[in-house]
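By way of example, what follows is a protein record of this kind.
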Amino acid sequence: MNDLNEKRALEINGLVKTFKSGDMETVIIKSKELIKKYPNSATIFNLFALANKNTGNFKIAIDLYMELLINNPENPMFLTNLANIYKDQGNWAKAEEYLKKALNTPNNTENTYISLGNLYSQQNRSDECIEFFEKLLINNSIKEDKNISELYFNLAESYRKKGSSFYDKAIEYYNLSNQPMTNTYGLECIYKAKDKKVFYKELEKISLEEELNPLLASIQTHASIRYDLPDNNLFCQSPFEYIYHSKLTAEEGFDTDLIDKLYNHIRDFDYLAQPLLNNGDQSAGNIFSSNEPYIQKMKDIILSRIDNYRENFKDSNNGFIKKWPSNFKIQGWIIDIKKGGNLKSHMHKLGWLSGSLYLNIPKKEDPSEGNIVFSLHGADYPHDDKIFPSKEVDINKNDIVLFPSSIFHHTLPFNSEENRVTLAFDVKPKY
């Protein structure tokens, strides 16, 4: 290796290390410098594109990959990375288009297969996900442990979504996966389909591991009411006490322009199939991955409210406060509900703290129309005719509501011709 090639290799390796460290801004600066020196390096361009993607500069990242693909039209990594940008933007159709292109290249990779299967799963296309992943298993196409684990988890999720007659199959695949919370996902299926003895035997195993997550908490709280037993969940007991409802104010940088811009932003999204919605749509992707100034401004306001929430409850002994995740992300999406529609009862399994910011609330003919209702019962859990407490919150435009992700919640229908539009979000641990 001559001196020039050796220097080039050292500089590129240094850029790779910086990327792995998570310092995306430095990667962007250094990539610009190195591109001038090594304009034909696909590795530098790829890292430059990924760093822009990770900082929300989607247009730059897309343009870079389009440029890379001119000279490398069958590079599966570039095609897959481009597809994942479109997926993060909520452009499902483009994501699928480029993933299928990547699969048709001679050197396609496991990551491409996993990305396409995940896309099916995220869109609730359960049958397609099952067919696709089980074919990969039969053909022994996936070798890496991480990818196999992810494959098993998405198979389990797809079978669970098909209904109770497929729960045994779902449990089988949950048990094969080592993704976060798989024990709890399996426990939920057991709780809904098996008897008390089987459920508590499995719960005892999980409890020994002191697992802390909102799904386990919602199951335990529900079971405690159903079976008249103490609620020993470690996440959040007495969750109604931790519902925080307030109005956004000008003092924190909020103005109605932000709401209007966010409201208009919904047309830029694809929508995913959302079986929980009656007469409504939910945006795909993460709205906060965009670097649009008004979106980032709203994100900052929400994060500030979350900080206030934690400060307000800092003396709580509940796990979701005391063991707040040191590494988390915030994910947001738009829910747009039309006349007569509502959101069915659910909780946010992968969240920690959840929230709703109300972009538009239709005129109410009745005080309860369009309101959000919190409950300790939901998701078609067996109830044995027990009464589960609930709490209705009267919401209006520009309101924000924060709550533990373990609480079930649904919305009430309304009769106005106006749409009910919400920016929903989760604080999600990064496992």
Notes: DSSP finds 16 helices and ten strands in the chain. The domain at 241-429 is CATH 2.60.120.620 (Jelly Rolls). Residues 275 and 369 are 21 Å apart (CA to CA). The first helix runs from residue 3 to 21.
